[in-house]
């Protein structure tokens, strides 16, 4: 993934600081905008991790600081929920002008409420996803505690949230109380995905229920069981990004992957700036190969050796089922589990002193759901060793290479 710092102006002429996350090949099939949670920023962990997961699925993601927050211009005291919605509309206009108009909005917490309002006003948006969103923006008043009454009575007050001081004015409260996320969801007329955790102690899952019942179809709900409101856990945040990407594919047209032209069965393409993330064309199919993060990769796809092991596993399963069908044997399911490593070719006392004693080794386990006798099972084991990829790996091979 490539992430770059950018900025754009909102309708008040204020400069809003942003990051644009692009997929490894830097050719996103669609653009999305991410709205961060209440008083958070574009660099908050959940925002960053969800955006990266979306980018890994081919989206370009714009995440930015609302006016008055993070690195953006403006005074927080002069902002409100409505200005956040306007900032989202400005972000969409920026993408449409300088990149490509966005088709997806994603929002976390109060940002989730904001994308529902903004989604109605941005014509190019086809789908909206909310994460832990309140059904009523005024829900955030609970975070103001005892200072809420002071704001109402005196016009403003200082409130400390997550160790930072913010000035809230009465106009902020008035604006929140004038909004209804449920009503906005009813009028959205865009595909809506609601993600919420039943363990959310900040915004109860009752809010998700109210938004869902108010919205029209197409609408979907995914429970984030085990997650907390802020999605601090990286795995939970990445899961959310992948779920949103998979769901959105049903409602957002995705252009074909840029074709890799080849007369061969398989082709690999890797740009200088993409690290190990390699685009693959295998027959008529496209996918990525990569390396784990611990060795400098992005983990956007299987490793080269995992691809080899996958070929062995798939070929073994196909060969077993093909043989069973020819014999009239019923195998309900066959699983082939394969791992690659370098291990010693034989047990010996001096093996540790001879690196050449290690050979490439595939450990393969086969699981069958079938009513077969011992003789049939023994035959299946023999047939597994006759799968074409197995035979190729066992035979003497040659690789002829030339520059073209």
Automatic annotation (TrEMBL):
One Pfam family linked to the record: Hydrolase_4
Stretches assigned to the Serine aminopeptidase S33 domain: 47-133
Alphabetized InterPro entries for the sequence: AB_hydrolase_fold, Hydrolase_4, KH_dom-like_a/b, OsmC/Ohr_fam, OsmC/Ohrsf
Protein's name according to its UniProt entry: OsmC family protein
């Amino acid at each position: 993934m490539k992430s770059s710092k950018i900025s754009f102006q909102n309708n008040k002429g204020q400069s809003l600081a942003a990051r644009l996350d692009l997929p490894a090949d830097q050719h996103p099939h669609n653009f999305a905008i991410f709205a961060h949670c209440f008083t958070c920023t574009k660099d908050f962990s959940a925002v960053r991790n969800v955006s990266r997961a979306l980018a890994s699925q081919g989206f370009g993601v714009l995440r930015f600081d609302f006016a008055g927050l993070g690195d953006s211009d403006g005074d927080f005291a002069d902002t409100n929920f409505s200005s956040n919605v306007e900032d989202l509309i400005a972000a969409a206009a920026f993408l449409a002008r300088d990149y490509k108009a966005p088709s997806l909005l994603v929002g976390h917490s109060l940002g989730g409420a904001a994308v529902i309002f903004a989604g109605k006003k941005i014509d190019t948006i086809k789908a909206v996803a909310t994460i832990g969103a309140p059904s009523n923006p005024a829900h955030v008043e609970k975070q103001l505690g005892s200072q809420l009454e002071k704001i109402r009575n005196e016009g403003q007050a200082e409130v400390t949230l997550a160790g930072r001081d913010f000035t809230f004015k009465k106009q902020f409260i008035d604006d929140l109380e004038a909004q209804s996320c449920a009503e906005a969801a009813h009028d959205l007329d865009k595909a809506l995905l609601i993600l919420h955790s039943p363990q959310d102690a900040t915004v109860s899952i009752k809010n998700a229920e109210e938004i869902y019942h108010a919205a029209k179809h197409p609408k979907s709900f995914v429970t984030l069981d085990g997650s907390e409101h802020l999605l601090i856990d990286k795995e939970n945040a990445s899961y959310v990004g992948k779920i949103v990407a998979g769901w959105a594919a049903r409602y957002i047209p995705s252009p074909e992957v840029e074709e890799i032209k080849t007369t061969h069965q398989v082709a690999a393409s890797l740009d200088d700036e993409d690290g190990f993330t390699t685009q693959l064309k295998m027959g008529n199919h496209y996918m990525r190969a990569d390396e784990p993060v611990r060795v400098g990769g992005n983990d956007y796809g299987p490793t080269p050796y995992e691809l080899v092991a996958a070929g062995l596993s798939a070929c073994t399963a196909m060969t077993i089922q093909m043989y069973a069908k020819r014999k009239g044997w019923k195998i309900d399911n066959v699983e082939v589990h394969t791992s690659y490593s370098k291990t010693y070719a034989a047990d010996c006392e001096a093996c540790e002193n001879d690196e050449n004693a290690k050979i490439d080794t595939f450990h393969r386990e086969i699981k069958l759901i079938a009513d077969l006798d011992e003789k049939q099972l023994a035959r299946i084991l023999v047939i597994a060793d006759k799968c074409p990829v197995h035979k190729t790996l066992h035979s003497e091979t040659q690789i002829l290479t030339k520059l073209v």
